[in-house]
Design brief:
heterodimer; A: 287 residues; mainly alpha; MetI-like fold; 13 helices; 74% helix; B: 272 residues
Protein backbone atom coordinates (compact mmCIF):
# COMPACT_ATOMS: atom_id res chain seq x y z
CA UNK A 1 0.00 0.00 0.00
CA UNK A 2 2.77 2.39 0.96
CA UNK A 3 4.58 1.70 -2.30
CA UNK A 4 1.43 2.39 -4.31
CA UNK A 5 0.89 5.67 -2.47
CA UNK A 6 4.46 6.72 -3.16
CA UNK A 7 4.04 6.00 -6.88
CA UNK A 8 0.80 7.98 -7.05
CA UNK A 9 2.12 11.09 -5.29
CA UNK A 10 5.29 11.01 -7.37
CA UNK A 11 3.48 10.46 -10.66
CA UNK A 12 0.08 12.19 -10.70
CA UNK A 13 -0.45 10.93 -14.25
CA UNK A 14 -1.22 7.45 -12.91
CA UNK A 15 -4.05 8.93 -10.83
CA UNK A 16 -5.61 10.36 -13.96
CA UNK A 17 -5.03 7.49 -16.34
CA UNK A 18 -5.55 4.70 -13.80
CA UNK A 19 -9.34 4.32 -13.82
CA UNK A 20 -9.58 4.26 -17.62
CA UNK A 21 -6.61 1.90 -17.93
CA UNK A 22 -8.14 -0.43 -15.36
CA UNK A 23 -11.48 -0.43 -17.19
CA UNK A 24 -9.80 -1.25 -20.51
CA UNK A 25 -7.72 -3.98 -18.88
CA UNK A 26 -10.59 -5.68 -17.04
CA UNK A 27 -13.30 -5.31 -19.68
CA UNK A 28 -11.32 -5.40 -22.92
CA UNK A 29 -8.04 -7.31 -22.43
CA UNK A 30 -9.32 -9.95 -19.97
CA UNK A 31 -12.39 -10.73 -22.11
CA UNK A 32 -10.15 -11.31 -25.15
CA UNK A 33 -8.16 -13.85 -23.12
CA UNK A 34 -11.43 -15.34 -21.96
CA UNK A 35 -12.64 -15.57 -25.57
CA UNK A 36 -9.51 -17.52 -26.50
CA UNK A 37 -9.81 -19.96 -23.58
CA UNK A 38 -13.52 -20.49 -24.34
CA UNK A 39 -12.62 -21.19 -27.97
CA UNK A 40 -10.37 -24.03 -26.78
CA UNK A 41 -12.96 -25.49 -24.40
CA UNK A 42 -15.04 -28.65 -24.62
CA UNK A 43 -18.37 -27.74 -26.29
CA UNK A 44 -20.28 -30.18 -24.07
CA UNK A 45 -20.72 -27.59 -21.29
CA UNK A 46 -23.43 -24.95 -20.99
CA UNK A 47 -23.43 -21.15 -20.57
CA UNK A 48 -24.74 -21.49 -16.99
CA UNK A 49 -22.54 -24.39 -15.83
CA UNK A 50 -19.47 -23.12 -17.69
CA UNK A 51 -17.08 -24.88 -20.07
CA UNK A 52 -14.00 -27.05 -19.42
CA UNK A 53 -10.84 -25.73 -21.02
CA UNK A 54 -9.26 -28.78 -22.72
CA UNK A 55 -7.08 -27.23 -25.46
CA UNK A 56 -9.55 -28.58 -28.01
CA UNK A 57 -8.02 -27.19 -31.20
CA UNK A 58 -10.54 -29.16 -33.27
CA UNK A 59 -13.01 -26.33 -32.57
CA UNK A 60 -11.02 -24.23 -35.01
CA UNK A 61 -10.79 -26.82 -37.81
CA UNK A 62 -14.48 -27.65 -37.40
CA UNK A 63 -15.48 -24.01 -37.56
CA UNK A 64 -13.31 -23.29 -40.60
CA UNK A 65 -14.48 -26.30 -42.61
CA UNK A 66 -18.11 -25.61 -41.81
CA UNK A 67 -18.34 -21.81 -41.98
CA UNK A 68 -15.61 -20.66 -44.39
CA UNK A 69 -18.18 -19.41 -46.95
CA UNK A 70 -19.49 -16.97 -44.33
CA UNK A 71 -15.98 -15.61 -43.79
CA UNK A 72 -15.37 -15.21 -47.52
CA UNK A 73 -18.73 -13.50 -48.00
CA UNK A 74 -18.07 -11.08 -45.11
CA UNK A 75 -14.73 -9.99 -46.52
CA UNK A 76 -16.05 -9.67 -50.10
CA UNK A 77 -19.13 -7.65 -49.09
CA UNK A 78 -17.13 -5.47 -46.71
CA UNK A 79 -14.44 -4.95 -49.37
CA UNK A 80 -16.91 -3.82 -52.03
CA UNK A 81 -18.75 -1.58 -49.56
CA UNK A 82 -15.44 -0.01 -48.46
CA UNK A 83 -14.50 0.75 -52.07
CA UNK A 84 -17.90 2.35 -52.72
CA UNK A 85 -17.58 4.36 -49.49
CA UNK A 86 -14.13 5.54 -50.59
CA UNK A 87 -15.49 6.85 -53.91
CA UNK A 88 -18.61 8.51 -52.43
CA UNK A 89 -16.79 9.70 -49.31
CA UNK A 90 -13.86 11.19 -51.23
CA UNK A 91 -16.18 13.30 -53.40
CA UNK A 92 -18.01 14.71 -50.39
CA UNK A 93 -14.89 15.17 -48.23
CA UNK A 94 -13.12 16.92 -51.13
CA UNK A 95 -16.11 19.18 -51.74
CA UNK A 96 -16.30 20.16 -48.05
CA UNK A 97 -12.54 20.69 -47.68
CA UNK A 98 -11.95 22.74 -50.85
CA UNK A 99 -15.25 24.02 -52.23
CA UNK A 100 -17.48 24.76 -49.26
CA UNK A 101 -15.85 28.01 -48.09
CA UNK A 102 -17.55 29.35 -44.98
CA UNK A 103 -20.09 26.50 -44.93
CA UNK A 104 -17.50 23.90 -43.89
CA UNK A 105 -18.66 23.50 -40.29
CA UNK A 106 -22.34 23.34 -41.21
CA UNK A 107 -21.70 20.70 -43.87
CA UNK A 108 -19.64 18.63 -41.43
CA UNK A 109 -22.48 18.73 -38.92
CA UNK A 110 -24.84 17.68 -41.71
CA UNK A 111 -22.61 14.67 -42.45
CA UNK A 112 -22.95 13.37 -38.89
CA UNK A 113 -26.55 14.43 -38.20
CA UNK A 114 -28.46 11.67 -40.08
CA UNK A 115 -26.80 9.10 -37.86
CA UNK A 116 -28.61 10.27 -34.75
CA UNK A 117 -31.65 8.34 -35.95
CA UNK A 118 -31.20 4.75 -34.77
CA UNK A 119 -29.04 2.53 -36.96
CA UNK A 120 -31.71 -0.18 -37.02
CA UNK A 121 -34.56 2.18 -37.88
CA UNK A 122 -32.56 3.68 -40.75
CA UNK A 123 -31.54 0.26 -42.04
CA UNK A 124 -35.18 -0.84 -42.00
CA UNK A 125 -36.09 2.15 -44.16
CA UNK A 126 -33.88 0.71 -46.93
CA UNK A 127 -36.28 -2.21 -46.97
CA UNK A 128 -38.89 0.25 -48.19
CA UNK A 129 -36.60 2.07 -50.62
CA UNK A 130 -35.23 -1.11 -52.22
CA UNK A 131 -38.48 -3.09 -51.86
CA UNK A 132 -40.20 -4.81 -54.80
CA UNK A 133 -42.75 -1.97 -55.07
CA UNK A 134 -40.29 0.82 -54.36
CA UNK A 135 -39.25 3.48 -56.84
CA UNK A 136 -35.71 2.15 -57.28
CA UNK A 137 -36.90 -1.22 -58.57
CA UNK A 138 -39.66 0.37 -60.67
CA UNK A 139 -37.25 2.82 -62.31
CA UNK A 140 -34.70 0.15 -63.10
CA UNK A 141 -37.41 -2.06 -64.54
CA UNK A 142 -38.80 0.77 -66.67
CA UNK A 143 -35.29 1.41 -68.00
CA UNK A 144 -34.95 -2.34 -68.76
CA UNK A 145 -31.79 -2.49 -66.67
CA UNK A 146 -33.54 -5.14 -64.61
CA UNK A 147 -35.96 -7.91 -65.70
CA UNK A 148 -39.64 -7.31 -64.75
CA UNK A 149 -39.48 -9.90 -62.00
CA UNK A 150 -36.04 -8.79 -60.77
CA UNK A 151 -35.45 -7.91 -57.12
CA UNK A 152 -32.93 -5.93 -55.10
CA UNK A 153 -34.16 -6.67 -51.61
CA UNK A 154 -32.96 -10.05 -50.29
CA UNK A 155 -29.96 -10.04 -52.65
CA UNK A 156 -26.24 -9.34 -52.07
CA UNK A 157 -26.76 -5.96 -53.79
CA UNK A 158 -29.08 -4.83 -50.98
CA UNK A 159 -26.65 -6.01 -48.30
CA UNK A 160 -23.70 -4.17 -49.89
CA UNK A 161 -25.88 -1.07 -50.39
CA UNK A 162 -26.85 -1.15 -46.72
CA UNK A 163 -23.25 -1.57 -45.57
CA UNK A 164 -22.09 1.27 -47.83
CA UNK A 165 -24.75 3.62 -46.52
CA UNK A 166 -24.27 2.75 -42.84
CA UNK A 167 -20.47 3.11 -42.70
CA UNK A 168 -20.04 6.11 -45.03
CA UNK A 169 -19.44 8.69 -42.24
CA UNK A 170 -16.55 6.57 -40.89
CA UNK A 171 -14.91 7.15 -44.27
CA UNK A 172 -15.79 10.83 -44.69
CA UNK A 173 -14.48 12.15 -41.37
CA UNK A 174 -10.85 10.85 -41.59
CA UNK A 175 -10.72 11.77 -45.30
CA UNK A 176 -11.86 15.29 -44.50
CA UNK A 177 -9.35 15.58 -41.65
CA UNK A 178 -6.40 14.84 -43.94
CA UNK A 179 -7.71 16.78 -46.97
CA UNK A 180 -8.32 19.83 -44.82
CA UNK A 181 -4.64 19.94 -43.81
CA UNK A 182 -3.44 20.24 -47.42
CA UNK A 183 -2.05 23.68 -48.14
CA UNK A 184 -4.13 25.22 -50.92
CA UNK A 185 -1.03 26.90 -52.36
CA UNK A 186 0.25 23.47 -53.42
CA UNK A 187 -2.66 23.27 -55.88
CA UNK A 188 -1.88 26.74 -57.18
CA UNK A 189 1.79 25.82 -57.54
CA UNK A 190 0.89 22.68 -59.50
CA UNK A 191 -1.34 24.58 -61.92
CA UNK A 192 1.27 27.37 -62.26
CA UNK A 193 3.64 24.65 -63.40
CA UNK A 194 1.11 23.65 -66.09
CA UNK A 195 -0.19 20.51 -64.41
CA UNK A 196 -3.70 19.60 -65.57
CA UNK A 197 -6.37 19.33 -62.85
CA UNK A 198 -6.26 15.53 -63.17
CA UNK A 199 -2.48 15.47 -62.85
CA UNK A 200 -2.64 17.84 -59.86
CA UNK A 201 -5.10 15.49 -58.21
CA UNK A 202 -3.11 12.31 -58.74
CA UNK A 203 0.34 13.80 -58.06
CA UNK A 204 -0.51 16.22 -55.23
CA UNK A 205 -3.91 15.79 -53.60
CA UNK A 206 -4.24 12.01 -53.57
CA UNK A 207 -0.76 11.24 -52.11
CA UNK A 208 -1.23 13.88 -49.40
CA UNK A 209 -4.63 12.45 -48.48
CA UNK A 210 -3.31 8.88 -48.06
CA UNK A 211 -3.36 8.92 -44.23
CA UNK A 212 -7.07 9.73 -44.43
CA UNK A 213 -7.63 7.05 -47.05
CA UNK A 214 -5.92 4.42 -44.90
CA UNK A 215 -7.71 5.54 -41.72
CA UNK A 216 -11.07 5.76 -43.45
CA UNK A 217 -10.86 2.39 -45.19
CA UNK A 218 -9.91 0.70 -41.90
CA UNK A 219 -12.70 2.41 -39.95
CA UNK A 220 -15.16 1.34 -42.65
CA UNK A 221 -13.90 -2.16 -43.44
CA UNK A 222 -13.53 -3.44 -39.87
CA UNK A 223 -17.08 -2.76 -38.63
CA UNK A 224 -18.54 -3.74 -42.02
CA UNK A 225 -16.81 -7.14 -41.94
CA UNK A 226 -18.23 -7.86 -38.49
CA UNK A 227 -21.72 -6.51 -39.17
CA UNK A 228 -24.76 -8.74 -39.40
CA UNK A 229 -27.61 -6.25 -39.13
CA UNK A 230 -27.60 -5.37 -42.84
CA UNK A 231 -27.30 -9.03 -43.86
CA UNK A 232 -30.22 -9.96 -41.60
CA UNK A 233 -32.60 -7.14 -42.48
CA UNK A 234 -31.81 -6.61 -46.18
CA UNK A 235 -30.49 -10.00 -47.28
CA UNK A 236 -31.68 -13.61 -47.29
CA UNK A 237 -30.33 -16.88 -45.87
CA UNK A 238 -27.75 -17.07 -48.68
CA UNK A 239 -26.29 -13.64 -47.96
CA UNK A 240 -25.50 -14.23 -44.27
CA UNK A 241 -22.16 -13.00 -43.03
CA UNK A 242 -19.84 -14.33 -40.34
CA UNK A 243 -21.45 -12.03 -37.77
CA UNK A 244 -24.80 -13.75 -38.34
CA UNK A 245 -23.19 -17.12 -37.66
CA UNK A 246 -21.31 -16.01 -34.53
CA UNK A 247 -24.45 -14.45 -33.13
CA UNK A 248 -26.56 -17.56 -33.87
CA UNK A 249 -23.98 -19.87 -32.32
CA UNK A 250 -23.92 -17.76 -29.14
CA UNK A 251 -27.65 -17.11 -28.76
CA UNK A 252 -29.85 -19.76 -30.43
CA UNK A 253 -27.33 -22.63 -30.45
CA UNK A 254 -25.63 -21.79 -27.10
CA UNK A 255 -22.44 -23.33 -28.53
CA UNK A 256 -19.96 -20.92 -26.97
CA UNK A 257 -16.70 -22.74 -27.81
CA UNK A 258 -17.39 -22.86 -31.55
CA UNK A 259 -18.81 -19.33 -31.52
CA UNK A 260 -15.68 -18.08 -29.74
CA UNK A 261 -13.40 -19.90 -32.17
CA UNK A 262 -15.15 -18.24 -35.12
CA UNK A 263 -14.88 -14.87 -33.37
CA UNK A 264 -11.14 -15.36 -32.76
CA UNK A 265 -10.64 -16.30 -36.43
CA UNK A 266 -12.47 -13.14 -37.57
CA UNK A 267 -10.32 -10.99 -35.29
CA UNK A 268 -7.09 -12.71 -36.38
CA UNK A 269 -7.92 -12.32 -40.09
CA UNK A 270 -8.70 -8.64 -39.58
CA UNK A 271 -5.46 -8.01 -37.65
CA UNK A 272 -3.41 -9.74 -40.38
CA UNK A 273 -5.15 -7.82 -43.15
CA UNK A 274 -4.77 -4.49 -41.34
CA UNK A 275 -1.05 -5.06 -40.77
CA UNK A 276 -0.46 -6.06 -44.40
CA UNK A 277 -2.49 -3.13 -45.67
CA UNK A 278 -0.84 -0.56 -43.43
CA UNK A 279 2.62 -1.84 -44.33
CA UNK A 280 1.79 -1.68 -48.04
CA UNK A 281 0.37 1.81 -47.76
CA UNK A 282 3.49 2.86 -45.86
CA UNK A 283 1.59 4.63 -43.09
CA UNK A 284 2.72 2.65 -40.06
CA UNK A 285 2.91 5.78 -37.96
CA UNK A 286 -0.90 5.85 -37.96
CA UNK A 287 -1.01 2.93 -35.55
CA UNK B 1 -13.50 26.82 -73.43
CA UNK B 2 -11.00 26.23 -70.67
CA UNK B 3 -12.78 28.81 -68.51
CA UNK B 4 -16.12 27.07 -68.95
CA UNK B 5 -14.37 23.77 -68.33
CA UNK B 6 -12.81 25.09 -65.16
CA UNK B 7 -16.14 26.51 -63.93
CA UNK B 8 -17.83 23.15 -64.49
CA UNK B 9 -14.86 21.42 -62.90
CA UNK B 10 -15.03 23.43 -59.71
CA UNK B 11 -18.81 23.38 -59.38
CA UNK B 12 -19.21 19.76 -60.48
CA UNK B 13 -17.32 18.50 -57.42
CA UNK B 14 -19.51 20.58 -55.13
CA UNK B 15 -22.68 19.39 -56.87
CA UNK B 16 -21.60 15.74 -56.67
CA UNK B 17 -20.67 16.20 -53.02
CA UNK B 18 -24.10 17.63 -52.24
CA UNK B 19 -25.68 14.68 -54.07
CA UNK B 20 -23.77 12.29 -51.78
CA UNK B 21 -24.99 14.30 -48.79
CA UNK B 22 -28.56 14.09 -50.10
CA UNK B 23 -28.18 10.32 -50.45
CA UNK B 24 -27.21 10.13 -46.78
CA UNK B 25 -30.52 11.78 -45.88
CA UNK B 26 -32.84 9.49 -47.89
CA UNK B 27 -33.47 7.12 -44.94
CA UNK B 28 -34.19 10.07 -42.62
CA UNK B 29 -36.82 11.38 -45.03
CA UNK B 30 -38.37 7.92 -45.24
CA UNK B 31 -38.35 7.52 -41.44
CA UNK B 32 -40.01 10.94 -40.99
CA UNK B 33 -42.57 10.11 -43.69
CA UNK B 34 -43.38 6.70 -42.22
CA UNK B 35 -43.96 8.28 -38.81
CA UNK B 36 -47.16 9.71 -40.36
CA UNK B 37 -48.15 6.41 -41.97
CA UNK B 38 -51.45 4.78 -41.05
CA UNK B 39 -50.45 1.12 -41.12
CA UNK B 40 -53.57 -0.26 -39.43
CA UNK B 41 -54.80 -3.19 -41.47
CA UNK B 42 -51.91 -2.86 -43.93
CA UNK B 43 -50.48 -6.01 -45.48
CA UNK B 44 -47.14 -4.50 -46.37
CA UNK B 45 -45.59 -2.57 -43.47
CA UNK B 46 -42.84 -1.18 -45.71
CA UNK B 47 -45.12 0.92 -47.89
CA UNK B 48 -46.84 4.25 -47.24
CA UNK B 49 -50.62 3.73 -46.90
CA UNK B 50 -52.35 6.95 -45.76
CA UNK B 51 -51.64 10.00 -43.62
CA UNK B 52 -52.33 9.99 -39.89
CA UNK B 53 -51.18 11.79 -36.73
CA UNK B 54 -52.00 8.78 -34.53
CA UNK B 55 -48.39 7.62 -34.23
CA UNK B 56 -47.32 11.02 -32.91
CA UNK B 57 -50.32 11.34 -30.59
CA UNK B 58 -49.95 7.84 -29.13
CA UNK B 59 -46.22 7.15 -29.22
CA UNK B 60 -46.42 4.59 -26.42
CA UNK B 61 -49.14 2.48 -28.01
CA UNK B 62 -46.88 -0.47 -28.99
CA UNK B 63 -46.44 -2.76 -26.02
CA UNK B 64 -43.00 -2.37 -24.43
CA UNK B 65 -41.61 0.28 -26.76
CA UNK B 66 -41.56 3.23 -24.37
CA UNK B 67 -40.15 1.01 -21.59
CA UNK B 68 -37.31 0.06 -23.93
CA UNK B 69 -36.67 3.74 -24.73
CA UNK B 70 -36.47 4.47 -20.98
CA UNK B 71 -33.97 1.63 -20.49
CA UNK B 72 -31.86 2.96 -23.37
CA UNK B 73 -31.94 6.52 -21.99
CA UNK B 74 -30.95 5.33 -18.50
CA UNK B 75 -28.05 3.24 -19.84
CA UNK B 76 -27.09 6.05 -22.23
CA UNK B 77 -26.86 8.64 -19.45
CA UNK B 78 -24.98 6.38 -17.04
CA UNK B 79 -22.52 5.22 -19.71
CA UNK B 80 -21.99 8.80 -20.92
CA UNK B 81 -21.24 10.16 -17.43
CA UNK B 82 -18.83 7.35 -16.54
CA UNK B 83 -17.06 7.24 -19.90
CA UNK B 84 -16.76 11.04 -20.10
CA UNK B 85 -15.22 11.34 -16.62
CA UNK B 86 -12.82 8.41 -17.01
CA UNK B 87 -11.93 9.47 -20.55
CA UNK B 88 -11.37 13.15 -19.74
CA UNK B 89 -9.06 12.32 -16.82
CA UNK B 90 -7.07 9.93 -18.99
CA UNK B 91 -6.83 12.50 -21.80
CA UNK B 92 -5.21 15.04 -19.46
CA UNK B 93 -2.64 12.46 -18.40
CA UNK B 94 -1.89 11.47 -21.99
CA UNK B 95 -1.46 15.04 -23.27
CA UNK B 96 0.09 16.75 -20.25
CA UNK B 97 2.27 14.07 -18.71
CA UNK B 98 5.06 11.81 -19.87
CA UNK B 99 4.82 8.54 -17.97
CA UNK B 100 5.92 4.96 -18.31
CA UNK B 101 3.34 2.88 -20.16
CA UNK B 102 2.03 5.82 -22.14
CA UNK B 103 2.41 4.11 -25.53
CA UNK B 104 0.84 0.92 -24.16
CA UNK B 105 -2.10 3.03 -23.02
CA UNK B 106 -2.41 4.60 -26.48
CA UNK B 107 -2.53 1.11 -27.99
CA UNK B 108 -5.15 0.01 -25.45
CA UNK B 109 -7.31 2.98 -26.48
CA UNK B 110 -6.90 2.28 -30.19
CA UNK B 111 -7.60 -1.46 -30.06
CA UNK B 112 -11.29 -1.37 -28.99
CA UNK B 113 -12.01 0.94 -31.93
CA UNK B 114 -10.30 -1.50 -34.31
CA UNK B 115 -12.19 -4.51 -32.97
CA UNK B 116 -15.41 -5.52 -34.72
CA UNK B 117 -18.38 -5.14 -32.39
CA UNK B 118 -19.24 -8.82 -32.70
CA UNK B 119 -15.78 -9.78 -31.37
CA UNK B 120 -15.94 -7.26 -28.51
CA UNK B 121 -19.45 -8.39 -27.59
CA UNK B 122 -18.63 -12.08 -27.72
CA UNK B 123 -15.44 -11.71 -25.68
CA UNK B 124 -17.33 -9.85 -22.94
CA UNK B 125 -19.99 -12.55 -22.98
CA UNK B 126 -17.32 -15.27 -22.78
CA UNK B 127 -15.79 -13.54 -19.75
CA UNK B 128 -19.11 -12.98 -17.98
CA UNK B 129 -19.97 -16.66 -18.48
CA UNK B 130 -16.51 -17.80 -17.37
CA UNK B 131 -16.94 -15.66 -14.24
CA UNK B 132 -20.21 -17.45 -13.49
CA UNK B 133 -22.37 -14.45 -14.35
CA UNK B 134 -24.01 -16.15 -17.35
CA UNK B 135 -27.42 -16.21 -15.66
CA UNK B 136 -27.19 -12.61 -14.44
CA UNK B 137 -26.81 -10.70 -17.70
CA UNK B 138 -28.81 -7.48 -17.83
CA UNK B 139 -28.62 -3.78 -17.04
CA UNK B 140 -25.17 -3.92 -15.42
CA UNK B 141 -23.47 -6.02 -18.07
CA UNK B 142 -24.88 -3.75 -20.79
CA UNK B 143 -23.65 -0.69 -18.88
CA UNK B 144 -20.14 -2.14 -18.48
CA UNK B 145 -19.97 -2.86 -22.21
CA UNK B 146 -21.26 0.60 -23.19
CA UNK B 147 -18.76 2.41 -20.93
CA UNK B 148 -16.02 0.33 -22.57
CA UNK B 149 -16.77 1.23 -26.18
CA UNK B 150 -17.59 4.89 -25.38
CA UNK B 151 -14.33 5.34 -23.45
CA UNK B 152 -12.01 5.15 -26.48
CA UNK B 153 -14.09 7.64 -28.44
CA UNK B 154 -14.16 10.08 -25.50
CA UNK B 155 -10.37 9.91 -25.08
CA UNK B 156 -9.74 10.41 -28.80
CA UNK B 157 -12.08 13.42 -28.93
CA UNK B 158 -10.93 15.17 -25.73
CA UNK B 159 -7.26 14.38 -26.38
CA UNK B 160 -7.32 16.08 -29.78
CA UNK B 161 -9.02 19.16 -28.30
CA UNK B 162 -6.49 19.32 -25.49
CA UNK B 163 -3.53 18.82 -27.82
CA UNK B 164 -4.71 21.74 -29.97
CA UNK B 165 -4.87 24.06 -26.95
CA UNK B 166 -2.55 27.06 -26.94
CA UNK B 167 -0.50 26.59 -23.75
CA UNK B 168 0.53 30.27 -23.85
CA UNK B 169 -2.92 31.13 -22.48
CA UNK B 170 -2.18 29.10 -19.36
CA UNK B 171 1.30 30.60 -19.02
CA UNK B 172 -0.21 34.08 -19.31
CA UNK B 173 -2.67 33.28 -16.52
CA UNK B 174 0.17 32.05 -14.30
CA UNK B 175 2.17 35.17 -15.07
CA UNK B 176 -0.80 37.18 -13.88
CA UNK B 177 -0.58 35.41 -10.51
CA UNK B 178 -3.38 32.91 -10.99
CA UNK B 179 -2.64 29.77 -9.00
CA UNK B 180 -2.81 26.31 -10.51
CA UNK B 181 -6.41 25.59 -9.68
CA UNK B 182 -7.56 29.06 -10.81
CA UNK B 183 -5.72 28.60 -14.09
CA UNK B 184 -7.31 25.21 -14.57
CA UNK B 185 -10.90 26.23 -13.81
CA UNK B 186 -10.82 29.69 -15.46
CA UNK B 187 -8.70 28.94 -18.52
CA UNK B 188 -8.01 25.28 -19.29
CA UNK B 189 -11.36 23.72 -18.46
CA UNK B 190 -13.55 26.25 -20.34
CA UNK B 191 -11.34 25.83 -23.40
CA UNK B 192 -11.52 22.03 -23.32
CA UNK B 193 -15.22 21.98 -22.44
CA UNK B 194 -16.59 21.97 -26.01
CA UNK B 195 -14.52 18.85 -26.67
CA UNK B 196 -15.88 17.19 -23.52
CA UNK B 197 -19.42 18.11 -24.51
CA UNK B 198 -18.91 16.72 -28.00
CA UNK B 199 -17.48 13.52 -26.54
CA UNK B 200 -20.51 13.20 -24.23
CA UNK B 201 -22.93 13.68 -27.11
CA UNK B 202 -21.06 11.09 -29.15
CA UNK B 203 -21.09 8.66 -26.21
CA UNK B 204 -24.81 8.99 -25.69
CA UNK B 205 -25.62 8.41 -29.33
CA UNK B 206 -23.24 5.42 -29.55
CA UNK B 207 -24.81 3.91 -26.46
CA UNK B 208 -28.40 4.63 -27.50
CA UNK B 209 -27.76 3.11 -30.91
CA UNK B 210 -25.78 0.00 -30.05
CA UNK B 211 -27.27 -3.33 -30.98
CA UNK B 212 -24.59 -5.96 -31.66
CA UNK B 213 -22.71 -5.80 -28.34
CA UNK B 214 -25.90 -5.20 -26.33
CA UNK B 215 -27.72 -8.13 -27.90
CA UNK B 216 -25.06 -10.58 -26.69
CA UNK B 217 -24.85 -9.22 -23.14
CA UNK B 218 -28.41 -8.17 -22.33
CA UNK B 219 -30.06 -11.26 -20.82
CA UNK B 220 -33.73 -10.33 -20.44
CA UNK B 221 -33.23 -6.55 -20.56
CA UNK B 222 -34.69 -4.89 -23.68
CA UNK B 223 -33.15 -1.67 -25.03
CA UNK B 224 -34.72 0.35 -27.84
CA UNK B 225 -32.59 -1.17 -30.65
CA UNK B 226 -33.41 -4.62 -29.28
CA UNK B 227 -37.11 -3.76 -29.31
CA UNK B 228 -36.82 -2.71 -32.96
CA UNK B 229 -34.93 -5.90 -33.80
CA UNK B 230 -37.56 -8.06 -32.12
CA UNK B 231 -40.37 -6.16 -33.79
CA UNK B 232 -38.70 -6.37 -37.22
CA UNK B 233 -39.34 -10.11 -37.28
CA UNK B 234 -43.12 -9.50 -37.19
CA UNK B 235 -43.32 -5.99 -38.67
CA UNK B 236 -42.26 -2.82 -36.90
CA UNK B 237 -44.85 -0.50 -35.33
CA UNK B 238 -44.84 2.92 -37.01
CA UNK B 239 -44.12 4.60 -33.63
CA UNK B 240 -40.53 3.42 -34.02
CA UNK B 241 -40.22 6.06 -36.73
CA UNK B 242 -41.50 8.70 -34.30
CA UNK B 243 -38.67 7.85 -31.86
CA UNK B 244 -36.17 7.95 -34.73
CA UNK B 245 -37.38 11.36 -35.91
CA UNK B 246 -37.45 12.84 -32.39
CA UNK B 247 -33.86 11.66 -31.74
CA UNK B 248 -32.73 13.22 -35.02
CA UNK B 249 -34.38 16.60 -34.33
CA UNK B 250 -33.15 16.65 -30.73
CA UNK B 251 -29.54 15.92 -31.67
CA UNK B 252 -29.60 18.44 -34.48
CA UNK B 253 -30.98 21.12 -32.13
CA UNK B 254 -28.27 20.47 -29.52
CA UNK B 255 -25.53 20.67 -32.13
CA UNK B 256 -26.90 23.84 -33.75
CA UNK B 257 -27.47 25.61 -30.41
CA UNK B 258 -23.96 24.63 -29.28
CA UNK B 259 -22.43 25.87 -32.51
CA UNK B 260 -24.39 29.16 -32.34
CA UNK B 261 -23.33 29.70 -28.72
CA UNK B 262 -19.65 29.16 -29.48
CA UNK B 263 -19.88 31.52 -32.48
CA UNK B 264 -21.50 34.18 -30.32
CA UNK B 265 -18.82 33.81 -27.65
CA UNK B 266 -16.09 34.07 -30.27
CA UNK B 267 -17.68 37.24 -31.67
CA UNK B 268 -17.98 38.78 -28.18
CA UNK B 269 -14.34 37.97 -27.43
CA UNK B 270 -13.27 39.48 -30.73
CA UNK B 271 -15.28 42.65 -30.09
CA UNK B 272 -13.73 43.19 -26.68
Amino acid sequence: MGALQRVLTKHPAYFLVGPAALWLLVFFAFPLVSLITTSLSDPSGSPIAGYDMTFRFQNYSEVISEYWPYLVRSFVYAGIATLLCLILGYVLAYAIAFKAGQYKTILLVLVVAPFFTSFLVRTLSWKLILGDDGWVVHTLQALHVMPPDGRILATPVAVVAGLTYNFLPFMILPLYASLEKIDHRLHEAASDLYASPARTFFRVTWPLSLPGVVGGTLLTFIPAAGDYINASLLGNTNTQMVGNKIQQLFTTASDYPHASALSVILMALIVVMVLMYVRKAGTEELL
Amino acid sequence: MTRIGRWIGSHLVLALGLLVLLYMYIPNFIVALMSFNDASGARNLYEFQSFTLDNWLNPCAPLGMCESVKVSIAIGFAATIFATILGTLASFALVRHRFEGRSTMNLMIFLPMATPEIVMGSSLLAMFVAAGQGGKLGFWTILIAHILFCLSFVIVTVRSRLAGLDSNLEKAAMDLFANESQTFWRITFPLVFPGILGAALLSFSLSFDDFIITNLNSGQTVTFPMFVWGAAQRGVPMQVNVVGTVMFILALTIVIVGEAASRRRRRLLAAR
